[in-house]
Amino acid sequence: MPPRRTRPVVNLALAALIERAGWTHAETARHVNAVAAETGERIHYDRSAIGHWLTGTIPRPEAVHAAVEAFRRQLGRTDLTPAHLGWPDPAVAPPADDPWRGDPVARLATLGEDDLLNRRTVLTAGTFTLAALSARGGGIRPRAPAGRAGAGDVARIRAATASFADLDDQYGGAHARAAVAAYIAREVAPLLHEATGRTRPDLFGAAAELSYLAAYMAMDAGANALAQRYYISTVRLADEVGDLVLRATALRSMAVQAAELGHDGEALALADAAASALGGRGPDRTQAWITGMRAEAHAGAGTRWDALNLLRRTETQLERADSPPEALWTGNYRRESLEHQIGLTLTRLGDHATAARHFAASMEARRPGERRTRALIGLRAAHAFLRAGELERAAGTVLGLSDDVRLIASARVRDELRSLRADWQPYRDSPVIAEVDRAVAEAAGLRAGRRGGRRRA
């Protein structure tokens, strides 16, 4: 029985939103903490804090912004403001800074430097924002050439990017991010001011590829506001030299980020923008990569028929692709990638049993160097098996990933694992689930769950 409330609820607006979201007080606190963490703000509210908010306490400004964004995501209401939660607008609001404006080279240099030094100007410039998604750049704006960077610089940047990408694949995006930021700020950005007319497109393309990787690593590390800015930087660098494939690549990955954060409408708009950037041109493998994301986004938007038709088109485009996958690292779309995309799409459509088989096929086909991807997709497979009622298959899948989870620094993997463990709480009396839960909790450095089907507050 819950403790007797000694103070009355006075914030009825917040109480109504919590009820509409379907959250307990503990779940509300966890969602607020998670959104704040995306900006580098480490807050640790619990259910008692929510009780204080309901009885009239107004949280500090960063918590207000995080709470508003958490409810926006859960309820699908981008119009929510602090007033809808019964609070005044905080005295200190996040600075208004449009990442689509200003010199793209200067912005990249500042972004890398701030990321490297963990400056709060970039880390607390706001959560992942829907407003930043609406611009998507102003198109191609070529510039006159400047100084003397050469082809050797392009080769070095691309070699470094490939090495960082290998580390990301094996150990997760939270590993070696500082090294990437330092390389961008100290080595790459200065070269962009020195590009000759002949070398300039390749140099900007190489810098855009590195910015794209920095975005993906930041997203995997849970720094979604920072990732969004790196993705926008990628689009703008690609636009500087008319690289439509790189522009489409970044927009496609912004769609992935929006979908993972629950912004289904924005995910669909971004996936469609990526397809429009290519205009039906470009490598078949890259087109398949983007079409597959459009299928997933349509599933999230509830347009089932379009989603299934786009999946069929993705398969046709992939079968037609004649380039080696490794030749297109930003669109490195293989059969196992399509299996993953099918799994994500069917999950959104509610077909968990079929989704589980596709996730499992993708996981099993992954190469040894793709440890983070294999773990993430494997946990998604286990979750789908659990939702389909295949308890032992779910447990066996997770148990086989425990060694990988131990080595990976990835917020996405940890979040997937936490979500899975929360969903198998009702089955904790099962010896199989209890054993697996202890194993993965130890591997991931999490607390083992209680038995008896009760959730921890």
Automatic annotation (TrEMBL):
This is Transcriptional regulator. It comes from the Bacteria. It comes from Nonomuraea solani.
